[in-house]
Amino acid sequence: MAPRSHLVKHPIQKLLLIRLGAMGDLIHLSPSITEIQRQRPDIEVHILTSPAFAEMVSGFEGMTADRVWVFEKPSGALASYKNIGDMARKLGEIGIDGVVNLHPSFKTWLLTRMILGRSKGKRSSVYHKQKLRKKGSRQRTISRRHAVDDFYVPVQKLLKLSKMADHAPYYPTNRSQQQDTAASGFWVAVIPGVGSKRANRAWPLRYWRRLIDSLVQEHGCRVVLIGGQAEQQTAEMLAMETNAVNRCGDYSIIETIEVLSHCHLAIGGDTGPVHLAAAVGLPVISVFGPTAVSRTGPLGRDRIEALTPPQSLGCWPCELSECPLPGDQYLSCMTQVTVEEVIANCVSIGKEAVGKDQLQV
After folding, report:
1. In angstroms, what CA-CA distances link 361 with 142, 219, 281?
2. What is the spatial distance between Cα 52 and Cα 190, in angstroms, rounded to a whole number?
3. 347 to each of 82, 179, 278, 341, how far by Cα in Å?
4. What total of structural domains would you count in the chain?
5. Rg (CA), the chain
């Protein structure tokens, strides 16, 4: 017999999830969408996001392009509020009767209020990031919700859902049809950048250079550099000094997904394409320092290795946007994750993926 919740019509029939970005956050939201569809297949899920991510979100499991709405950010207060009014009217016309605001701001609050009117309190829920007062090594002793679970809390509250069955994000691709390893080589997607806003999450350029040289020359791998426009300069320098194929800034997000689906391993820091690689189904090696793995580490259905600094370094994770340490101590959390650690994990994953005879170990 089906659970009782499936037999009773839910008061919310068309739900809007609001999350404008960034890429990693939207990837971490995808398990909530899957869970709604599993527990409440009678509810039609819509998403409001930024133009840059609309096509990617349309590819989430169970989503369709006509249920993804784009929130433009025109310049000027008058144009901005007119856009909110127009969006509220369109969403109201299709019958949106429930909202989970996962990107809380005055504008998204106003949008929610305009869509739902007086029923706002009963038909909406707001995401509040779990905050911790402790810093550095003291954070490591605290049980902290991952972003996947954090996003699910307001969804679960509003729809009265049970626990999430699968926390791992999943992005449907044709990965099972990838090229034969023996014929094309063992491809490693290296994601050297972390965007322009959080440069303190970046592994040193000299480390990437040594890693790529080792992967190509000592282990017979083929390396492709993946990233956006912000990583182009870094990638060009690496491509000039190594045998890596530079594709940073060349592809859309959807095209990047296709490239990742033909790779065998992805390596990067705390950045969107790393979470995308994990969702596509690649084994992933990520380097974490200032940000907490327990909160934003990649999750996937294959092997995930999140490398962190030694326990003796007491300042991580600081969750700061800039490193406050002076001189030689600057970015110690990133410099103390060694190239040798990453290579050792690459070799281990390579053995599992293709066997010792096909990868030079």
Report:
1. 38, 6, 23
2. 22
3. 55, 20, 18, 10
4. 2
5. 22
pTM for the structure as a whole: 0.90
State the residue for tokens 């909530």: 32
pLDDT digits (tens, 9 = 90+) for 309-332: 998 988 888 888 888 888 888 999
Neighbours of 221 (CB within 10 A): 23
The maximal CA–CA distance of the chain, rounded, in angstroms, is 67
Q: Are 230 and 272 in contact (CB under 8 A)?
A: no
- Location of structure tokens 């294959």: 302
Q: Return left, alpha or beta for 331; rule: phi > 0 is left, psi -120 to 50 is alpha, else beta.
A: left
Choosing from 159, 191, 225, the residue where a domain stops is: 159
Bridge pairing between strands 221-225 and 186-191 = parallel
Same domain, 231 and 318: yes
pLDDT of 181 reads 45
- Report which of 333, 234, 238 is spatially closest to residue 287, judged by C-alpha positions: 333
- Structural domain boundaries, residue 302: 177-354
142 lies in the same domain as 216: no
Q: With residue 125 as reference, give the H or E element that holds it.
A: strand 124-126
Total residue length of the chain:
361
pLDDT tens, position by position, 268-296: 999 999 999 999 999 999 999 999 898 89
The two structure tokens encoding residue 13: 């029939």
Distances (CA, A) of 307 to 4, 110, 270: 44, 41, 11
